[in-house]
Write a structure and sequence with these properties.
245 residues; mainly alpha; minor pseudopilin epsh fold; binds fe (iii) ion
């Protein structure tokens, strides 16, 4: 069978989610539960059932910056594969009932769970990334986030330059993050491959995926243009503020 999103049970309807608030909680709490969209038919009773969360917006909502074509691969293939591979690898494991977050934290320090790290972290990171963007987002934040950005970086332009440098300078595949430190100050960090701040006890507010699969169809090799589009048109400051707690 041709390996299309439809053939795997991921319909266009499945790509269209509800509100950001509702789906963010569902995405980040992704855990055992009802059979997921991905591989539902192949999951045996008692197996891990991490779900592919719905996107928080229609699959063409971020155009022209991130197209439905990119999402059909990035969400429909890459993110879906991390979830289905994770579920397959957890079959029969003592980690199958852990939440995604518990599994990531455990896999980062427990040798027996290390093999789960990449797919678990990528499943979590992607759910977080979708919610880090919204149509009509980006630009300068207001309210609490504006105060935090000013207190932590001096002003918005310095934050923007630092985030763009981290995202553009990450060698190879990885992620750029805005995180909140224990001292209440915000910081920017880049992680390689699947690595994620939650594995190290840090609190992420938003992330930008800088793996080539995130931007190559829309921007080819122009990662700085993709990062600029993320900062100017997509970044979801409401999600960042919510994650501040
Ligand atoms: Fe990705």
């Amino acid at each position: 069978m041709k390996n299309t999103p439809q053939s795997r049970g991921i319909t266009r309807r499945g790509l269209i989610g509800g509100t950001i608030a509702g789906s963010a909680a569902a995405a980040l709490a992704s855990n055992a539960g009802a059979a997921g969209i991905v591989g539902a038919a192949a999951v045996s009773p008692g197996a891990a059932r991490h779900e592919l969360p719905k996107l928080p917006w229609a699959d063409d909502a971020l155009q022209p910056y991130i197209t439905a074509n990119t999402l059909s691969f990035h969400y429909g293939k890459h993110h879906a594969a991390y979830v289905s591979k994770l579920n397959a690898s957890l079959e029969g494991s003592d980690a199958k009932d852990m939440s995604l977050k518990e599994l990531i934290v455990s896999a980062a320090k427990n040798e027996a769970h290390k093999k789960f790290f990449n797919n678990a972290a990528q499943a979590w990171n992607h759910a977080f990334y979708w919610n880090s963007m919204r149509p009509g987002g980006g630009g300068e934040p207001s309210g609490k986030m504006a105060e935090k950005i000013a207190a932590s970086f001096g002003d918005y332009s310095k934050f923007k330059a630092q985030f763009a440098a981290a995202a553009g300078g990450q060698f190879g595949s990885g992620w750029a993050w805005l995180v909140a430190g224990a001292d209440g100050k915000l910081a920017i960090e880049a992680t390689a491959n699947a690595d994620t701040p939650i594995a190290h006890g840090r609190k992420p507010l938003v992330t930008c995926d800088v793996w080539e699969h995130a931007y190559y169809l829309d921007f080819q090799n122009r990662r700085p243009d993709y990062v600029a589009a993320f900062l100017d048109h997509l970044l979801n400051w409401d999600f960042a503020e919510k994650n501040l707690g």
